[in-house]
Amino acid sequence: MEASEGSGKLEGACLCGAVQIEMTLPSKFCGHCHCSNCRRAHGAAFVTWVGFDKSQFRVAAGEKHLAHYHTDTDATRSFCNVCGSTLLYQSPRWPDDVHVVRANIQGEIDNAPAAHFYVDHQADWWEIADSLPQFGGKTGVEPK
Questions:
Q1: Where are any strands of DSSP class E within the chain?
Q2: pTM of the full predicted structure?
Q3: Domain with 48 in it
Q4: Residue 15 counted as domain residue
Q5: Number of structural domains found in the chain
Q6: Residue 64 counted as domain residue
Q7: What is the per-residue pLDDT across 38-67, written as a single tens digit (0 to 9) for each?
Q8: Residue 74 and residue 71: Cα distance in Å, rounded?
Q9: How far apart are CA 136 and CA 116, in angstroms?
Q10: Which is it for strands 86-90 and 97-101: parallel, antiparallel or unpaired?
Q11: C-alpha 41: how far from chain center
Q12: What is the CA radius of gyration of the chain?
């Protein structure tokens, strides 16, 4: 379902559909993360996240299927306990945000990916070939 012009609502789900989520636009950002935790959690070269204020996000169905993993960085990654799809990321660094995996949001959103983060940790088998800004350093968000 695409974002409705009037409501600004987005829908999303895990692979099996057991967990359904809803977001309200506008989003805060959309970007590609190359940190080793994201790469390993998703089995991919990078993960594209969309950030929303907590007040703009809700689990619409299947909350009992949402499992949580607390990382060594004190972040929480939430995933479906039926199909294993990673859906959400929350961190004390951004306490008012919920980051949602872009691939699990249906249709168009209001922000295209705008940057690459944690590029110092990117997979050695992947080359960033676009012209988006790149950030890295200790915080992952320092200009390169």
A1: 9-13, 20-24, 29-33, 47-53, 57-61, 66-70, 76-80, 86-90, 97-101, 116-117, 135-136, 142-143
A2: 0.92
A3: 9-116
A4: yes
A5: 1
A6: yes
A7: 999 999 999 999 999 999 999 999 999 999
A8: 5
A9: 8
A10: antiparallel
A11: 12
A12: 15
